[in-house]
Amino acid sequence: MTVPAHAQFVVIGGGIIGCSTAYHLAKDHKADVVLLEQGKLTSGSTWHAAGLVGQLRSSASITQVLKRSVELYKTLEAETGLATGWKMTGCLRLATNDDRWTEFKRLATTARSFGMDMELISPAEVKRMWPLLETSDLIGASWLPTDGQASPSDITQSLARGARMHGAKIHESVRVTGFEMDGARIVAVLTTDGRIACETVINCGGQWAREIGAMAGITVPLQPVKHQYIVTEKLDGLSPDVATIRDPDRRTYFKEEVGGLVMGGYEPDPISWTTGDIPRPFEFQLFDDDWEHFEQHLTQAIARVPALETTGVRQMINGPESFTPDGNFILGAAPECTNMYVGAGFNAFGIASGGGAGWALAEWAVRGEAPLDLWVVDIRRFSALHRDRDWVNERTLEAYGKHYTVGFPHEEYESGRNRIVSPLYDRLKAAGAVFGSKLGWERPNWFAPAGAVAHDVYSMGRQNWFGPVGDEHRLVRHKAGLFDQSSFAKYEVTGNDAAAALNWIAANNIDKPVGRLTYTQMLNSRGGIECDLTISRLADDRFYIVTGTGFRTHDLAWIREHIPSGLDAKVDDVTEAFGTLSLMGPTAVSVLAAVTKDSIDFPFGQFRILQIAGHPVRALRVTYVGEKGWELHMPIKGIGDVYDALMQVGLSAGLRPVGYRALESLRLEKGYRAWGSDITPNDTPFEAGLGWAVKLKSGIPFMGRDALLALQGKPMKKQLATFTTDREDVVLLGRETILRNDEFAGYLTSGGYGYTIGKPIGLGYVRHPEPATGDYELVVANERVKARIHFEPLYDPQNLKVKA
Ligand SMILES: Cc1cc2nc3c(=O)[nH]c(=O)nc-3n(C[C@H](O)[C@H](O)[C@H](O)COP(=O)(O)OP(=O)(O)OC[C@H]3O[C@@H](n4cnc5c(N)ncnc54)[C@H](O)[C@@H]3O)c2cc1C
Residue 804 above 50 pLDDT? Predict the structure, then answer.
């Protein structure tokens, strides 16, 4: 069968992800789909997967995607006639220490927040369910009854048959060798069997996805790592329906298979495969057994299932799997190319993700917009840094090694650090800065006082930085603090139609006089919030945009993709050209006045160019902390001079550098929202309490307007609110369940502590908010605590009223 000359969608890769995507494109969208597989279906990583299917992740949307997989695997056999091997066995996670137990309590709460019933059970109950387990060292276990296991090859073949039944054409033994490009657009896929002109390409190439992406100029930052498991002979007394086991403290997992056990693990010292191209051919291929490396898992597994000591091993599997630098998979529209989508890098949960990820990718590729908030897996969370293969390898191995370690709150990666440092790095370090990293940037999280331990000491309760961050917080409230926010992503939009283009993309009116700045969201067609940023008008035809560090690639791509064609407007990333210092607090006025001869008497929502220490500084009157202050943006080479000038005059006013953890606590008290957690593509400005920043009344058209008009005046399904509790000892992190009159009413999207009000604070959407009365509680690590709901900021700087 030769390949067709044209297709609407070309899916590359016949593993579970490619087959699921083709299935959904063909079935849900009646699309014209061609799937190309260089070898046979499943011959990459899919055929040798262990087949555990877990659903719970730390993001509600990703959990929803994984739940979709399970729903599909339950019914697929009836639809296609090919079995999937799906068994809803449930999953037990074992805890052997207090930190792990706290982690599980939080996990059980998250599960309930996301609509799943996870129970915590005793060692005796574990023994009853799984008699072959050694349970004497257990504190308990979590039990998620709806998890299960499946046969990876069978599901994939079943999806492929389903895709064919709905008209998809699947070609095996056809390799994609390149792309014919027209600028940043693919016009045709070149293969060993000829050329296919197409509209959209979907790269589901597994560990080859990096090479396939590179052929179209896109970065897919994944790293193949060798992952091993064994399959044992039969064990007496092992039920075929026994639960899958995750034993993170022993770094191992188990699953029943034809009377024996599949057992594998996540070692602290993983072995990556090539950082170059994958050798060819590599079809249904494995690496040599590495017993020496696997011994660490075997020892732990025998301690957990003593019967393994005398059970033979039928087979060892040592296969490659693509892992990523943050342990999440890679989905969505590649920012460097206008018509390539990616679904790859599944971090050993590709079977669990397959059904749902294929659905999401198909929706995304057909509609040009993600169907729900998929930020944590979005390919646009990466940046130029991720083109560095050695960096990707190093960080990925660290992430793999942490797969089963206790997930402490606020944990930072240790590898691949100090990639991008502000010119102030040495000055801040000398001032006691303890740094964290964000998209390659080193940023001060907090400042250790003289004599204190100058690094994070992780724990499940309050951590060692709690006190010093409180001091920084109070400094900003009572005097002034200086934040180095040079890592902010910054763009300039220029052109005769720049105002028209941005006014189409932005929900707020940005067409204001030069010198004004606008806080705005950018919305998708559902009215969901895709970006949250400020736009300053530098000239009639020139705008300066500032957004969060992590959103650099995402927001740039969103703006670039949505500039209406034919308009004279272009957007450039100027992040590294400007350094940013945020000077915030009651004494900020006197400090700023002392370093410039220019007038600083201009209102909130405006900016001026000030000369400071011989440098032109864009001073933006804006705040994320709820105090009077300025974001000072200057050519990066001048930031040292400006910092020194401010610190010199500020010393007597109590000015000190302040870090990101204080920023977080300050913004929570003021109720400022954070994109990615409090406001996402799932939330409209109305629900987020940001309706005031939308130009609906103006009659000016903008993206998302129709969706908002349809919602206007209707009762809201949910509304963002602030919660406090008087329980001082409670640690809020986000994802805690909100109860109203004993019933589920939502969950927190952010959590932290407000040092001015002296209480833990959470933000979260409350369902059916009218009326918002009732008795509220938060479920925190499985414990109910009394809470209060607030729709106004807890801290009002105008009259210093504390409302909590
Ligand atoms: C030992 C091991 C155990 C695992 N256990 C589990 C588990 O228990 N649960 C779980 O959920 N996941 C597990 N996984 C992970 C799972 O196997 C993968 O996440 C999943 O198979 C990835 O599917 P994929 O479709 O992305 O990649 P693949 O299956 O590798 O498919 C990609 C396909 O693209 C094809 N291709 C590449 N380049 C080209 C080209 N140029 N032209 C045409 N075709 C091309 C390849 O031939 C390949 O078939 C495990 C993985 C390993 C290694």
Answer: no
Average pLDDT, the chain: 96
Q: What separation in Å is there between the alpha carbon of 44 and the centre of ligand 1?
A: 5
Residue-wise pLDDT tens digits, 219-250: 999 999 999 999 999 999 999 999 999 999 99
**CA distance linking residue 702 with residue 518, whole number of Å:** 15
Position 799 confidence tier, pLDDT thresholds 50, 70, 90: very low
Measured from the CB, is residue 663 less than 6 Å from ligand 1? no
Residue 278 per-residue DSSP state? P
Nearest residue (by CA) to ligand 1, atom 26, is 206
Return the ligand 1 atom nearest residue 350 CA: 19
Specify the ligand 1 atom closest to the Cα of 253. Answer: 8
Does the CB atom of residue 51 touch ligand 1 within 6 A?
A: yes
Residues 591 and 649: beta-carbon distance below 8 Å: yes
Percent of the chain beyond pLDDT 90? 96
Average pLDDT of span 30-54? 97
- Distance from C-alpha of 121 to C-alpha of 239, rounded to nearest angstrom: 20
**Contact (CB, 8 A) for 142 and 104:** yes
Read off the DSSP letter of residue 681. T
Contacts of 18 (CB under 8 A, 6+ apart): 11, 12, 35, 37, 202, 204, 205, 343
CB 194 within 8 A of CB 174: no
In this prediction, residue 789 carries a pLDDT of 95
562-601 tens-digit pLDDT? 999 999 999 999 999 999 999 999 999 999 999 999 999 9
**Beta carbons of 170 and 163 less than 8 angstroms apart:** yes
The pLDDT tens digits for 87-138 are: 999 999 999 999 999 999 999 999 999 999 999 999 999 999 999 999 999 9
- Measuring CA to CA, which residue among 164, 155, 148, 154 is closest to residue 92? 148
User: 229 and 317 in contact (C-beta within 8 Å)?
Assistant: yes
Residue 690's closest CA among 600, 786, 763, 778?
763
Q: How many CB atoms lie within 10 A of CB 450?
A: 6
Q: How many CA atoms lie within 13 A of 558 on its CB side?
A: 30
Answer whether 175 contacts ligand 1 (Cβ < 6 A).
yes
The pLDDT value given to residue 801:
44
Q: What is the DSSP string of 145-194?
A: TT-EE--HHHHHHHHHHHHHHTT-EEESS--EEEEEEETTEEEEEEETTE
- Overall residue count recorded for the chain in this entry: 804
Q: Which of 321, 324, 328 to mutate to test the pocket of ligand 1 (most atoms within 8 A of CB)?
A: 321
What pTM was computed for the model? 0.97
